[in-house]
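Re: [ENG-882] Designed sequences occasionally contain unexpected residues at chain ends

Forwarding the minimal case from QA. Structure tokens:
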């Protein structure tokens, strides 16, 4: 990797342990981390609920291996964080207790601020009817700062459970102009001799007022005092509903809904976080113009929220597929163009780099790149085992706009062509035969095959199939995809 300082408004493809070394000390205002448990197997971002049933040990080996993987990366994030900076680590029950111990060691226990509990849903489907355990409905976000002098902006919400009912019950009074208000106690909870005074014939509380006489006069002029008709009553303060900021946000976040099958922002990633979740974190621990860093940025929700809120950002992900998804998302939402408004760096540029990718990640890259080459939308198959020989599909671009509420991401349309991908130097005749069976089983008569090269027998069979009018298979070499990608930049 070329040595250079990472630029803001840039997405970097690669291992964040290497990438982070190019970020200067204490140059980042906010770090957010939501790493998959098997971070070095980058295709894991495509896990679905079925795969989620696998035990933690099956995913990574054991907790020690996971922490050993994450520790040097978190230490680099600690280094690049400003003294006024904040750090958020998002995890679930698999490793939260191990992660907390690691973070205490790196940041020190005294810089631990909160364990934020996000109530993401009512419970996991597979545990709803089990008699030996409770359903899992929460995830943890560990909030640390580098020093006590950190940036923090209090947050408020109108969406907290029960808050709407609370407002209706307490704000029961109405001015002649329609403004709704509640009345609040003005008595001091403890003895304040200097605040014991009469006001307009009303006697003070036993301990005195909660405010000075000067402020009492000021609020009176502003119409913020409630005077009971009986002088033996107590002056109270008016609090207007239209001035309420919302309920102060505590460490239980039950007011942010997860990504559902009908969410407009849904991309199909099972681990995708809602933009509103990232907006809260960014608003709380940074200001406009600050630098936000996400070193495992997946489908780019942190970057999307940072862009929306006027922050600078850096995204890193080991998955080239994820980096491409982020790039497309920035264009779809904000019409930002790669190479002009932001940059995607260090994507695989050679066949050697592509050969080194994990098999499933190579499949994802090939299907998406093939879509760009054919002016279609390439969609990798989310199911990586039992896919019956179909590794992805090419959809007409106009169909892409209709996606959102189907497991296949593109509704029930039949307008697609199947894709087979082999990470081998020469795909042979048996590979072609298997793909032909898969095409026919899928009810198609045309498809695309991607490999680094093909044997003469494979090429001869493809020509024969086309001549007799059985199946039209397009053989695509990886070199053609790389060439098309370089020409598009």
């Amino acid at each position: 990797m070329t040595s250079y300082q990472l630029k803001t408004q840039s997405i970097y493809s690669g291992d964040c342990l290497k990438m982070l070394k190019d970020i200067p000390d204490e140059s980042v205002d906010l770090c957010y981390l939501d790493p998959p448990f098997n971070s070095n197997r980058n295709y894991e971002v495509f896990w679905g609920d079925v795969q989620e049933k696998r035990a933690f040990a099956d995913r990574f080996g054991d907790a020690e291996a996971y922490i050993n993987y994450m520790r040097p990366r978190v230490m680099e994030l600690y280094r690049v964080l400003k003294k006024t900076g904040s750090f958020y680590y998002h995890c679930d029950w698999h490793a939260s207790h191990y992660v907390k111990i690691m973070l205490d060691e790196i940041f020190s226990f005294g810089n631990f601020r909160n364990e934020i509990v996000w109530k993401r849903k009512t419970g996991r489907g597979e545990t709803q009817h089990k008699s030996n355990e409770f359903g899992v409905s929460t995830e943890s976000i560990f909030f640390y700062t580098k020093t006590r002098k950190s940036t923090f902006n209090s947050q408020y919400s109108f969406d907290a459970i029960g808050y709407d009912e609370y407002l209706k019950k307490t704000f029961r009074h109405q001015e002649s102009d329609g403004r709704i208000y509640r009345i609040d106690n003005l008595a001091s909870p403890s003895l304040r001799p200097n605040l014991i005074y009469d006001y307009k014939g009303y006697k003070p509380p036993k301990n005195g007022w909660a405010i000075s006489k000067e402020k009492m006069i000021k609020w009176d002029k502003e119409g913020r005092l409630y005077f009971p008709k009986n002088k033996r009553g107590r002056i109270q303060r008016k609090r207007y509903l239209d001035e309420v900021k919302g309920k102060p946000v505590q460490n239980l976040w039950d007011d942010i809904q997860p990504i559902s099958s009908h969410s407009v922002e849904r991309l199909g990633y099972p681990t995708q976080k809602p933009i509103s979740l990232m907006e809260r974190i960014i608003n709380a621990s940074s200001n406009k113009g600050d630098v936000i860093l996400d070193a495992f940025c997946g489908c780019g929700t942190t970057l999307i929220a940072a862009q929306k809120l006027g922050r600078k950002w850096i995204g890193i992900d080991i998955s080239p597929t994820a980096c491409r998804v982020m790039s497309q998302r920035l264009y779809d939402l904000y019409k930002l163009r790669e190479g002009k408004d932001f940059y995607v760096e260090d994507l695989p540029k050679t066949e050697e780099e592509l050969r080194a990718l994990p098999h499933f990640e190579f499949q994802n890259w090939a299907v998406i790149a093939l879509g760009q080459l054919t002016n279609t939308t390439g969609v990798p198959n989310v199911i990586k085992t039992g896919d019956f020989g179909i590794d992805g599909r090419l959809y007409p671009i106009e169909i892409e706009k209709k996606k959102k509420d189907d497991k296949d991401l593109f509704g029930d349309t039949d307008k697609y062509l199947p894709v087979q991908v082999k990470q081998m130097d020469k795909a042979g005749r048996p590979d072609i035969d298997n793909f032909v069976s898969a095409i026919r089983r899928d009810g198609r008569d045309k498809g695309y095959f991607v490999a680094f090269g093909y044997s003469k027998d494979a090429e001869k069979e493809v020509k024969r199939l086309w001549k007799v009018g059985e199946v039209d298979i397009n053989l695509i070499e990886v070199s053609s995809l790389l060439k098309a990608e370089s020409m598009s930049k």
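QA comment: On inspection the terminal residues look reasonable. DSSP finds 16 helices and 20 strands in the chain. Proposing we downgrade this to a documentation issue.
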